[in-house]
User: Fold these one by one.
Assistant:
Number 1:
Amino acid sequence: MKVCVLTLGCKVNKYESDSLLNIFKQKGWDVSDVLEKADAYVINTCAVTSEAEKKSRQMIARCKKFNPDAKIYVCGCAAQNNPNQFLGKAELIKGVAGKNKIALLPSGVQIDDVPNQYQQEEFALQSRTRAYIKVQDGCNNYCSYCIIPYLRGASRSRSLNSILDEVKNLDGGIKEIVLTGINLSDFKIDGKLGLLSLLQALDKFNLRMRLSSLEEVIADEEFIKGLSKLKNFCPHFHLSLQSGSDSVLKRMNRRYTTLQFEKTCSLIRKHFASASISTDVIVGFPDESEDEFNQTVQFINKIQFSFLHIFPYSHREGTVASRQKDLDFCVKKARADELKKINSALHKKFISQNKSGRVLIEEVINGKSYGFTENYIKCEIDAVCNVGDIVNVNITGGNEKLAFANLA
């Protein structure tokens, strides 16, 4: 029997899918995380935008094309948000809690209450050079545009011992770990913010370490300076900006100003000369004026991010922002297209500023090797390397997508 566990959305979802894959494998199933012919499909859905929910529904039809007789099991944020959209299309509709129970192959609609404490999962199935380690779930921020706190519940942290045990038991082929959570910056140990302490404890494993994302409010001098002393920390900082306009940030219920954000970026570059600083930007937030959008453009160019993730605002029923008037789709698209052009130029410029790096080889295709530097530049290396090796390279050029490199 074969099962495909398919993931939409964030790295937390991916970790939870990999945990489920591990359970199925232990039960004797042939498992896959790519869409192919199977006896059963588990679709781990996303609800961060309306487009993500649409893709979650469409995935059912894509699975049925491979095997019309296969059983479909749907779980995750889209199912939690609106289980009715999957009625009659899936054997099981399950929310965000207790995803591991899907391996029992139940049926019906099961939308359990989100737990108040961190829900321990089976360790994730790891078959790559990079392992995602979930350390936190839920969020207390309640940004005015975001539905996720209502679906995932309050912030809660995984125990330090459990995290260390999982990393200690990783396959020897894993060379890099990525810590992930719904609000990773809110990871706590004994009730106190503990992300730096966690990284210090993990540094002894001699694995490259990354953070999936970071909130500006945690990145003070003590935190950034502490990171700079870690021997295995990779200097890629994904700081979610969302808008470069203070008035929009206030309406979004973001808890910083552009000046505070700028100071954080300066602090990072003080301690990490070659740091990559990437970000998320929402365009077309309700009532975003042309002037407010131009403030965002100016701020992005001022900070000189390494790359941008750009999202047109998505109306999410139940959020504070959903009560405001949505902008016309054409306006949102035009603004997103403008930022995409800026993003291409910024990423190309960032690549040009880097002349060398250490690349973790992830795949080899047609005589060329591919992987990422410590500061998260994707490299195409004109050589055949072993997957899992970390190699020194000289960067010879690049474009808006990747760098071209030779072995040093």
Number 2:
Amino acid sequence: MDKGKIMTLAGVAVASAFVVVLGHAVSTQGNSAALNEEPIAGLVVPFNQFCDSKMPELTGEAENDDQDVVAVSSQNQPEQAAQEAGKPAANGTVENAAPVSQTAGETTLSSDGAKAPAATKAPEFKLNLVYDRLGVAKVKNYLNVRKKPSESSEIVGKMTNNSGCHIYSIKKGWAKIVSGKVHGYVKAEYLITDKEAEAKAKEVATRRITVTTETLNVRYLPSIDANVYDQISADEDYRVAKENLNREWLDQYIAKNVKKSQLKGLDMNSIYADLGNWSLISIDNEKAFISKDFVEFTNNLNRAVTIKQNQSGSDGSSDSSSGAYSIVNYAMQFLGNRYVYGGTSLTNGTDCSGFTMGVYRHFGYSLPRTSGAQAAATRSVSPGSERVGDLFFYGSGSVSHVALYIGNGQIIHASNHRDGIKISSAYYRKPIKIGRVM
């Protein structure tokens, strides 16, 4: 075959390949309305998938800052990500896996002429969100997420300051968003968007871990032979206090925080040798060690929390007549406010027991000042029988933290200096006691 025919056939092949790729991009763009109805953030995908839309690269079109809806990249599809990121192990934990490459399928030619995978440059910063257009809440306390774009519509969730979301569209002053498990509408004026939002995310995101098993024991020291400090849940993420440990740091930590009796029977040489497999996390204002084998590390923005109005108690009875929902609704006004150790002001700063004491005091109930005393002053309720308004008590060995149950498996509590008054899963750690005030 002469050279001209070879060149012609090569040109046809390249053109055909371009048409196939461009055709895929156009078909994806053409279905953007349908795709935009699918949840993007908060899906069951690995948190280390930080996906930016590749549509402008495929079509050659410049980004339009005025465009309300951004097409969803095929790399954001959860099914594909889950297949590439690894399968659950037999014990239910997720095996460690490399991040899905954003340049999958690209190849380079090695020195011997064979094709080799192209080097993939990992993103410098990965969030716990999958999105195409990022929004970050900019509010004093919290932002209501509503079922429909109207201030009279039902509240389905709340976003505290600096919470992140994926924006589907912005129309007539309302942003259609998804954040965590919450889908709905927020007032667009309270969102930072696009490049400003990405810059804000890098500023405010915190390094956190998510448990890859249903529950996980955390310990006083970095060893499976150390005493169990608490049990944490996959329903919550936890701030990393120290990700990479070393011997010098551990010796200093032990000198300040660990009793000699807690070291009894432990092989310190084995602990030193295994430090690379452990990290230190914060649980409220407390610290504990976790094994890296059962967690994933992410840079986290807070996400919206689900709110259900007009709930009933877990036993099927309505708590509204007893005033429990009035108490919860009052407590929710302070979501996002400051945590201050020893504080009792719901507006200017409070600690955990100051928060529950202040909320109940507003309705004429007198609770003691400390979490331990509040536990002693309330009658016990068995797990599964909790009602709205009950108090959840936590700690290691003795009570050191208290929260108010708001229903739907959630609590509101003054957690720590970083998060302030927040909403968590009621079983984000194992409760020592559930107490009933009313």
Number 3:
Amino acid sequence: MLNMFYLWLPNNKNKMGRSLFPIILVCSFFITAFSCSNKASKSRKPVSSITVLPKKSNYVFGEKVSINVKTKVKNGEIETVKVYYNSQLIKESPELDFNVDDIEISRIGKSNITVEPIKKDGVKNTRTKAISVISDIVPKTYSYKIVNVYPHSKEYYTQGLEYYDGFLYEGTGEHGTSGLFKVNLKSAKELKAHRLDDKYFGEGITILNNKIYQLTYRAQKGFVYNLSDFAVLDSFQFKGEGWGLTNDGTNLIMSNGTNVLSWLKPDDFSVVKTVEVADNKELIYQLNELEIINGNIFANLYTTEKIVEIEPETGRVLSEVSFPGIINMYHKPNDRIDYMNGIAYDESTERIFITGKLWPKLFEVELIPPAN
């Protein structure tokens, strides 16, 4: 049409031609703008909302809940909406508003509910809601009695403690004094020692298949030693901080100061699984030195005089025992003592040993279950 208009116009010297030329430019602009505005709009992502019922700040392990999903679509149509509980698909529906009922909460700690709406043109989106899950068990409260008191080096900043084949093994911390030690239980005499480089802050230890494994604090590095002579056999990397270490006869079990325990393969140190820890009131953080006793995991809670017993399959706290002031009458006023840390178990005699960082004593204790 514009080409025809130009053919009709006189030459540029004509006055009418000069006056119509700006009009033609304006018309051309509007025609172009109008044609652009009629292009297909970009497909927008659908958006879902997630409501967990009943609404709570903490849910309980084993509890059943309902999930309501509502999805909004700006343009186009929904093909399907997928709902996941901890990455497991639990429902798929073409509806925009629906419920998923009787979902059993099967994991302690932080659980994720994820919704993925997908449109017919393939455009999709995700929305995740995290919920906090505590234990359904009220932990038993144990008391204790002291069976024996043994000497302990006031130089050992105890981070790992292990009883094996008649001897104590200790991993110690602090820069410049970290190391690995084999010790006579009754005399506290040092029988074998390996010092870490000053740049490392030693942490938990465990013995598995005639090897000793030792963590370090923030270097994200661990060491593997030959049990008999402490020769360094290997080193390994891990993510995050290293705190406590034990094993279940197959895998290493590691704490990192949070409420998470990680199972690691002892050959390539890949993560097999993780478990979060909680009692019936809250998630339990600052899990420190670890020990397996009768199949369950016992853990020091950092900055406290409390030990908790954890079910390894679920992370539920089964029992707890406090040792308030156990060291008080066994150290001098000017002794530099630090927090309680260190649990060792003699499986052959069922003896339990506890100590602390820089404590001058190590205690053999008997745990006494509640009367009821």
Number 4:
Amino acid sequence: MKACVFNLGCKVNEVECASFMTALENEGYETTDTLCAADVYIVNTCAVTAEAEKKSRQAIARVRKCAPNARIVVCGCAAQKNAAAFAGKEGVVAVAGAMRKDLVPQLLRAGGVRQEEESVFCELPPPKQTKTRAFLRVQDGCNNFCSYCIIPYLRGRARSRKAASVVREAGSLSAREIVLTGIDLSSYQDGEADLGDLLLRLSHLPARIRLGSLEERVITAPFLEKMRAAGNVAPHFHLSLQSGSDAVLRAMNRHYTREEYLRACALIYRYFPDAAITTDIIVGFPGETEEDFCDSLSIVRAAGFARVHAFPYSRREGTNAARLADLPASLKKERMARMLAACAEAEKTYAERFLGRTLTALFEEDGGYTQNYIRVQAAGAKEGGMYEVRLTKYENGGCMSEIVKQI
């Protein structure tokens, strides 16, 4: 029997899918995460944007085209938001939500609609390792309730995995790099232990540790001191921003100001002068003026971002922002073009600082990433290999490099 586990969502979803594959293999299934003909399917959906939710619904038709007689279980955020949109589709035998995903493989047998809440972190089987870089899920849920985001209503309140469980699974991984993931990683807490303490407990590992998305509030001197003391944490901070305008940040229910965010960046550079700070910026949030937008443009340079994921605001029913008047699509498109140009220039400026220098890069199938998240290509580099590389030229959003030695 063959099982296909298909993911449409974030890195947390991706880790969950790898755990589903382990659970199914333990029951004798041959598994794949590539959409192809199979006997059963688990489809892990996403609802972060309207487009993601639409693709989640369309995925069922894609599965049916691959295998008209297959049994399908749908889970994830889109299924949590609107179970009825999936329950009636042909071939779908069960619909679960975004919580208690330990029960999802069982639903292939039990069927039905099952959307259970969870008050503590839900442990899943160790994910099947399919990549050089492993993702380790340590947190779930969110208490932030940003005005544009539906996820806290679907994933539930913040909850963290026990540090001992994290350390145990991390020690079993053979990956050269481990990425700690969570819906709100900054809220990680196991008793008195916070995210910095967890990093210290992982400091004995030979693997490089990389952090998922962080919030401004976690960037403190004690946290950065612990991170530096650990010694094996990549100096890469994906520090969520969303807007450079104080007015828009307030409307978004983000709990910091532009000045506080820039202070956090300055503190990072004090501890890690070569750090890559990457971020997300929403363009065209309701009520965003030209002045607000220019504040977002200017912070791209002021923060010294290494990379920016910029995207236009997408209205989500059920959020506070959905009650606000949306900006014209043409205006958002025009601002996006200006933002993307600023982001491309920032990425080039950051990468060119390192031309002629030697950095450590882990290579996958389509190239490598240095410890500070610069994309590199190098002739002779093999997938799964860790190399010291000298950066020689910036082009096409990354750097050409030459191998100095393999590590």
